[in-house]
């Protein structure tokens, strides 16, 4: 299973790279600078450093306010909800033909919930002895 990407947010002072490309809170490029310079700038302006592109050379970081980080997190969450899910989830349920009435009602409710969530549902009924 591939490693999950960390959530969008401030990286604090834990920056593994020596040279960074820094963008200010208005979106203007400040160019490449050493990690210590970027941290000093972050402290002077009371901002937070956020990793934008890790695979770029050098990695791109942006100085952001807490409010900007929060808004970006909300924007990404909405985008993730809106994007279609890859593949269809299939749920399977099996029970005996001699199932009790209340158990059948419970399983029926479960199936209805799965269908509302747009899952494919497979029901197997085994014959009672």
Automatic annotation (TrEMBL):
Tell me the SUPFAM superfamilies matching this sequence.
Translation initiation factor IF3, C-terminal domain, Translation initiation factor IF3, N-terminal domain
Gene Ontology molecular function: ribosome binding; translation initiation factor activity
UniProt entry keywords in alphabetical sequence:
Initiation factor, Protein biosynthesis
Instruction: Please list the GO biological process terms of this entry.
Output: mitochondrial translational initiation; ribosome disassembly
Annotated Pfam families: IF3_N (PF05198)
The Translation initiation factor 3 N-terminal domain is annotated at: 11-78
**One cellular-component annotation, GO:** mitochondrion
Q: Does the keyword Protein biosynthesis apply?
A: yes
Q: Which family does it belong to?
A: Belongs to the IF-3 family.
Q: What is the official name of this protein in its record?
A: IF3M factor
Task: Quote the gene name from the UniProt entry.
Answer: Mtif3
């Amino acid at each position: 299973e591939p490693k999950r990407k960390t959530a969008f947010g401030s990286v604090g002072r834990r920056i593994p790279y020596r040279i960074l490309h820094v963008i200010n809170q208005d979106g203007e490029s400040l160019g490449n600078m050493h990690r210590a310079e970027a941290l000093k700038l972050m402290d002077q302006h009371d901002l937070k450093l956020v990793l934008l592109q890790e695979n770029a050379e050098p990695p791109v970081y942006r100085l952001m306010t807490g409010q900007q980080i929060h808004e970006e997190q909300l924007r990404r969450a909405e985008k993730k909800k809106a994007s279609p899910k890859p593949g269809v989830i299939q749920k399977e349920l099996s029970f005996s033909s001699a199932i009790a009435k209340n158990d059948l009602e419970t399983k029926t409710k479960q199936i209805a919930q799965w269908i509302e969530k747009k899952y494919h549902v497979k029901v197997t009924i085994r014959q009672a002895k």
